[in-house]
């Protein structure tokens, strides 16, 4: 089906010869003329990735004042002003304003941090125009330009290679494939996918080695990179679970407050026959009393404190509400290379005909030893090992770069191919003197690696003869291919290779491969000038002539090791009911081996799905696979996006990690996208909700713990706020139902003092409560679980609400009792005794709430286990709250505003034990609950 007109019209340039290729682009090796460049800039636009229009500042700011919860507060402030309590209305407006600016500022800070991560370097490109080589800004490149590239260049246009030498490209940003891809300029003979074409290169990737001339075929948004950016920008974010939940909560509260207000108004008008206006104002007061003014600031503060704590754990959160999304995440889709692994190839095993050896140490730092069993080996004393390591290093081009003396983290880095870099590391561990080696074996020729040969060869001049020869060739490559070219095997010295040797070599190779290791074989051949088949001139050396009659030296097995902390983090995820799905561009065996090593897959029937298998599945089949343990290997960029969509359709909350451009659509689509701060590309960081500044998977788990704590803290806060709503409602209820015989035990102003002042201050401290110990032993909360559930209503509103009401009313009646009640009727509004009595009711509520704020710090464990004074925000809040209360009671000006009066010794004696009694009752209740759970055998 190689019919050229239909099959390949889209990417036909892959199947043409270089001359046909540039002709197709109306170009030539001389490059474009000025006129052509002008025309093409008109036609195709500049070579840049269009960024989506930024949401204007003012709109971002405005959105912080228009959430449902904020609207409810604007409304209640308005009601307060209508009912004549202007101070109150203004104070509610202030709460709303402060909160809005605060959350805007938090997100603004995070955004600035992200923008700072985007490097704004103008990049340049070398092109041929009018037959001359010129340096231009990358944005001026047009289709048809002849571009010249060399090692280290960033490629800034999709292009077809016209000629190249030893040209390798690092495409990891685009495809996730971590090893550099070797390219050539031949026309393709059979059909492959565009991104895998060996004669095409793409925007956003970098040149790992070699040089190349190529013709640009697509720029800007038409490049593959641009298409991904476009998909990313057009993926809309939905509301986060917390935002949805707060909207539900707001509606619930509004309904409760309104129905109570209306009920009281109707009772006042029809049963107690109060005048209409008075009843209306009374009802407004009730509604305002029922709306938790402190909820929004508490949520915001709670999220902000979490964001700060997470920043210390190396997780930068860009959007406040994203913190809580992590708390209900139940699936993490993780990349392998660099996130779960260190992205530093490491040699683990060596094999020679003498013995099999293990190598200690991980990563590029040359710290470690070579062992045979428990015995340390020195390469100087073992001919076989010495030659194996020397040959491997001489036959490679990567360089290991030691950290600079004054660098902070002191990491070794690599120039070139990571698989070759680890060879130098293992040679140093074997105590081989590399400087001496290079001067002793100067290289005179390289026959570069080719995918059809699966090997490369270097030829070296010898300072002193070896096996009677002045030249030696080292070959390294795929074990099967290299072994087939061997006639000898080295064991202390060269000897003829036997069938048994061949079986042993393949056995060792298969054993390593099953462990998911990459295996290289190394062999050599001494080149004697009088060999009949050697050409007289070195220029005529070719793989066919050189790569035969080899002597097998040994095998080198390597792997990108898992990060140290990952195993424990994965363990935690399992116990927290979170599933991890690995999605990687790497091979199945390697992926499976790492996944088993770190515990992502544990069962024998786990599935390893390749990219090809996935593209043959329909969505139903994919969802079926996703129910079990699964690793996705050899995945194309858009397949990650598809997996995320499928998981979300199954009702999961999905977190996705990634670092490449290819990950950004999935990062954006996920409920929470997590980008890598060090290896991540700007595009990925832009698309993500959170950035791991140390690229460490374990940071995600810390962040999940924080997210869960946030939700629990908001619920604690709710319970605490509702405790005081009952006495606030009981006061007017008592007044109404007694037909005015009991004068209002709490005035509207006092109710607001509780809501905006004394309750709110320590309550903000609940938002700073750290996660409970057992928080990661429970499954994630269900998305349809409500903040305001039966338990909150029963425990908060009813049980504690009534308890506090009794204590508070006790104080109200105590003052009257000390002043001659029940012989005399209750003191009427306007008298000092009345103000004293309402003051006592206020003190009762505030003191009971002091006990309650302590109680609400934990769900079921004892507060003593947490440490009574471990939350400094609450401690401070309690002190401030007490001082405010004293000021309201004893400062004459404030007496007028808050309808209070100074109280005496006996009243204080009644009030002081209240917090302790409330605290003791709740500790008892928690103990009963813990024992019940123990009996049921549930660990809480």
TrEMBL record:
One of its GO terms (molecular function) is ATP binding. The chain crosses the membrane at residues 61-82, 88-105, 253-273, 279-305, 792-813, 833-853, 873-893, 905-924. Keywords: ATP-binding, Cell membrane, Magnesium, Membrane, Nucleotide-binding, Phosphoprotein, Translocase, Transmembrane, Transmembrane helix. It comes from the Bacteria. It is a multi-pass membrane protein. It is found in: Cell membrane. SUPFAM superfamilies: Calcium ATPase, transduction domain A, Calcium ATPase, transmembrane domain M, HAD-like, Metal cation-transporting ATPase, ATP-binding domain N. Gene3D superfamilies: Calcium-transporting ATPase, cytoplasmic domain N (3.40.1110.10), Calcium-transporting ATPase, cytoplasmic transduction domain A (2.70.150.10), Calcium-transporting ATPase, transmembrane domain (1.20.1110.10), HAD superfamily/HAD-like (3.40.50.1000). InterPro entries: ATPase_P-typ_cation-transptr_C, ATPase_P-typ_cation-transptr_N, ATPase_P-typ_cyto_dom_N, ATPase_P-typ_P_site, ATPase_P-typ_TM_dom_sf, ATPase_P-typ_transduc_dom_A_sf, ATPase_P-type_domA, Cation_transp_ATPase_P-type. One of its GO terms (cellular component) is plasma membrane. Residues 12-85 form the Cation-transporting P-type ATPase N-terminal domain. NCBIfam families: ATPase_P-type. Belongs to the cation transport ATPase (P-type) (TC 3.A.3) family. Type IIA subfamily. This is Cation-transporting P-type ATPase. It comes from Thomasclavelia spiroformis.
